[in-house]
Amino acid sequence: MSSVPKAADRGLSIVIVETDRDRAMLIVDSLRDAGDFEIHVIAEVTGLARHIKQHNPDVVLIDIENPSRDMLEELALASGPLDRPVAMFVDKSAEGLTDAAIEAGVSAYVVDGMKPDRLKPILDAAVARFRMFQRIRMELAETKRALEERKVIDRAKGMLMKAKGLTEEEAYALLRKTAMDQGRKVADVAQALVTAAGLLS
Amino acid sequence: MTTRLSLAFMPLLDAAPMIVAQEMGFAAQEGLDLDLVSAPSWSSIRDMLVFGRVQAAHMLAPVPVATALGLGGAGAALSAASVTSVNGNILGVSNALAERLREAGHGFDLTDADSAGRALIAVAPTPLRIGVPFPFSMHAELLYYWLNALGLPAPQGVEIKTVPPPLMADAIAAGEIDAFCVGAPWGSIAVENGVGALLLAGSAIWSFAPEKVLCVRNDWADEEQALLARLIRAVWRAGRWLDQPDSRGLAAEILARPAYLNLDAEILDRGLTGRLTINGAGDQREVPDFLVFHDGAATFPWRSQAEWIAVQMAARTGLDRATAARLGRATFRSDIYRAAMKDTKADLPGASSKIEGGLADRTAVASDGGSLHLLRNEFFDRQIFDPKRFE
Asked: Locate the Response regulatory domain: which residues (chain A) (predicted)?
């Protein structure tokens, strides 16, 4: 029940909390495609609750991974008659929507009493976008991990080549054999060697 | 047969009982394998519980109570099956305020809430803005109680704002807040980062404040009684291990790992031992019972603890106190806890409710085994909270 009724010809107002400008623009674009909404992006997490209050939005979208989300809980406390109750979208009648949002990593705060059919296009668009972010985030983490493992393996190889006078291939073969004998990953054996060498030097 | 359970935690020192239960084999002893999920915020933990992404959680003690009162955004009724830690919060101030307190001759002893409060009020701006991790937290409850008793009521004199612990330092630096109340190790980290000084331990306001609980959904607790009992026992044994002085070094090392707190073990050790560095000059203070995991029946979920929280919240939000006390009391499940612990050597108290604030010293109490002691339980202003008032 919004205490300030919106004109029928005006779209819902949405606040997006996102510190990364590029990501924010992508979300804005997909929401624009989904309907006529009034959209604000907040990139600054200090004083978040205050900034959101200024915009008086119908919906707030925020990344589940964002620790600043807890600041929004203040908004769910109706501390005065003029404050509009805002709640995490937990309407059981629209369970599918909520589950999809949670799974995609977006939390939506909506004004209490807002009809699920008005929210659906917004969440559908946001969910699709956040799924993509999630995939990119995982790929990035995976790439970073692979790179780091490669670096450690290279260092361990270099140490073995120097200490035992091996070629690069022989050094790698030794690492691999040790890993197989011990039932461990090559990267773990390499890490152990690098750590031990660091302690001894 | 091993049962896998998902448990969400916030990367804080007092997540130790859950983490240690898994790492030191107390979970395995009960046939449990805990999938520990590190969460970015309390609201996300609450949502993960409500939507069944996890079965149990490390949670702020006031959250199940607030949920029962209809405050906040939870979508399902929650139960505290066990308390997992008592105390552990610390109040700190900006460097500017610390300087003014020093000039006024304040000694920063961390344990005298009356003198610290009066000194702070004398030099603080109006309104005094204090950051806490969550609107429903023991941090917020202790601050409201303390400042109100000293004549600085909210919201006129003090503004309690939500700031996630990792952003507390930034908020102080940006001038968004003048002081903060956080759980270990974030107070020590503010000191390390040179943005603030420690003023008062939470235990100085209430010497036995239930801080975190093992939280589950009510319907899950009903459906999975045996499984929950195993979890309660595993976490209880972890707490017992943690409270032994010899365990603390290893505990700090385990918690420091990247998958858990990903912080320096030395900083974690300060909270575990209660020996805190309070400012950039390296001054140290020792706080007795700074963080308790087991001693004095620390894990027993007293109905009266939940009632105290409920009545404080009711007074602030204008709800009926007797109704709030009744709803709150039902969330601290001493019934579930007793059933889980009955075949262990744990010595359980005879009563499930007690006068809060009524013990000036360590005291022997009536218990099943006859050997139970409770720790000092006093409010700084020597008030007592008698739950009989609301029966």
From this structure: 13-127
Cβ proximity of B378 and B310 under 8 Å:
no
* Percent residues over pLDDT 90 in chain A: 23
Residue A129 CA to residue B121 CA, distance in Å, equals 48
Q: Which residues of B touch A77 (CB under 8 A)?
A: 71-72, 135, 317
State the nearest Cα–Cα gap between A107 and chain B, in angstroms: 9
**Total of domains in chain B:** 2
Q: How confident is the model at residue A122 (pLDDT cuts 50, 70, 90)?
A: confident
Which residues of chain B does A60 touch, with a Cβ-Cβ cutoff of 8 Å? none
CB contact under 8 A, A92 and B75: yes
Tokens of residue B103, six digits: 């000039």
Mean pLDDT for chain A overall: 78
Report yes or no: A15 at the B interface, CB cutoff 8 Å.
no
Q: Do A102 and B162 touch (CB under 8 A)?
A: no
Top-confidence residue, A13 or A120: A13
Considering CB atoms only, which of B42, B74, B135 is closest to A74?
Answer: B135
Please name the residue of chain B whose CA is at the shortest distance from the CA of residue A75: B72
Q: How many CB atoms lie within 10 A of CB B78?
A: 25
How far, in Å, are B78, B212, B323, B335, B338 from residue B353 at the CA level? 20, 18, 17, 12, 13
Contact B161 A74 (CB under 8 A): yes
**How many Å apart are CA B214 and CA B220, to the nearest integer?**
13
Angle (CA) B165 B167 B172, round 5°: 105
Measured between beta carbons, the chain B residues lying within 8 angstroms of A65 are 40
Confidence band for A88, pLDDT divided at 50, 70 and 90: low
Query: Could you give the ipTM of this predicted complex?
Result: 0.81
Asked if pLDDT for residue A91 goes beyond 50, the answer is no
Domain boundaries, chain A: 13-139, 140-200
Task: Tell which CATH architecture fits domain A140-200.
Answer: Orthogonal Bundle (1.10)
Q: Do A88 and B71 touch (CB under 8 A)?
A: no
Classify residue B259 by its DSSP letter. T
Nearest to B135 among A64, A65, A73 (CB): A73
Q: Do A46 and B170 touch (CB under 8 A)?
A: yes
One domain, residues B97 and B61: no
Mean pLDDT of B135-145: 96
**Boundaries of domain holding B122:** 89-208
Q: What is the pLDDT of residue B288?
A: 93
Instruction: Tell whether the model's pLDDT for residue A62 goes beyond 90.
Output: no
Going by the DSSP 8-state scheme, the letter that residue A43 receives in this structure is: -
- Alpha carbon separation from B336 to A165, B80, B228, B259, B340 (Å, rounded): 65, 9, 9, 31, 6
- The CATH fold assigned to A13-139 is D-Maltodextrin-Binding Protein; domain 2 (3.40.190)
